[in-house]
TrEMBL record:
Belongs to the transketolase family. Keywords: Thiamine pyrophosphate. The keyword Thylakoid does not apply. This is Transketolase. Its cofactor is thiamine diphosphate. The keyword Kinase does not apply. GO terms for molecular function: magnesium ion binding. InterPro entries: THDP-binding, Transketolase_N. It comes from the Bacteria. Residues 18-268 form the Transketolase N-terminal domain.
Length: 273
């Protein structure tokens, strides 16, 4: 359970990460701010407080692992990694530059600490399952986290992987559905409705927890519940707002994959002051 001071410190870090997200995308002139801003609480909490890793030894065999299945949301991913100390925060401003380690989609060939090169939607949970099964065979006590987008959950491979995790009872797997209700160019329900996602994942044998994805306390309690759940994987349905924190980016598909202008950047930074 987070203390009051830990919550305050994390809230400061989340606000800083939001500012860095919009700066990075503006600097690059491209990127995905909307889904990064919706996911940043969960990612910051995982990297700063929850995950057992060794920054100085990124390939430590007994580490917890994270798989960003919605691989386009690297601005949030990289700011969370920087918050844990994987690389200097100043390096964030090389995002999408030529020869940078901070590619538009994560690459484990370039950046130590990245556990999967991703971006082709639908594949992350399958890789997460494989790592979790390997840890079980090896007798390693590690946890495996995977973040999925709700638009991404329209992919069939997500449900194949969900069936695998449930049937294998992978209780070392915890997936987070960043449910901001908007995908590339419209609301998820208008493109292909997911229906009752909680009932769906329960039907596949998962323990399901619904939370306010912008509440650090709710998320922390959900991660505690996931660790305490034995015999089945956990899906955290994280209800979020696309573009959270920047008024003109909230609840719109426009900034799914578009950079702010100079004036829009200044407005965003003022709102995130």
């Amino acid at each position: 359970m987070l203390t009051d001071q830990e919550v305050k410190d994390l809230e400061v870090q989340v606000k800083q990460n939001r500012r860095d997200i919009v700066r990075m995308v503006h600097h690059a002139g491209s990127g995905h701010p909307g889904g990064s801003l919706s996911a940043i609480e969960a990612l910051t909490l995982l990297y700063v407080k929850r995950m057992r890793v060794r920054v100085e030894e990124p390939s430590w065999p007994d580490r917890d692992m994270f798989f960003l299945s919605k691989g386009h949301c690297t601005p949030a991913y990289y700011t969370a990694m920087a918050s844990r100390g994987y690389f200097p925060r100043e390096e964030l401003m090389t995002f999408r530059d030529m020869h940078t380690r901070l590619q538009g989609h994560p690459s484990n060939a370039h950046l130590p600490g990245v556990d999967i090169s991703s971006g082709s939607l639908g594949q992350g949970l399958s890789v997460c399952n494989g790592a979790a099964l390997a840890a079980r065979i090896d007798g390693r006590d590690a946890r495996f986290y995977c973040m999925i987008g709700d638009g991404e959950a329209q992919e069939g491979q997500i449900w194949e992987a969900s069936m695998t995790a449930g049937s294998r009872g992978l209780d070392n797997v915890c997936a987070i559905l960043d449910k901001n209700d908007i995908q590339l160019d419209d609301y998820v329900d208008n493109v292909k409705s997911l229906g009752d996602v909680c009932a769906k994942w329960r039907a596949f044998g998962w323990h399901v927890v619904e939370v306010d994805g912008h509440s650090l306390r709710d998320l922390d309690a959900a991660f505690d519940e996931a660790e305490a759940t034995k015999g089945r994987p956990t899906m955290i349905i994280s209800h979020t707002t696309k573009g959270k924190g920047v008024s003109y980016m909230e609840n719109t598909a426009k900034f799914h994959g578009m950079a702010p202008t100079d004036d829009e950047l200044e407005t965003a930074l003022e709102e995130l002051r």
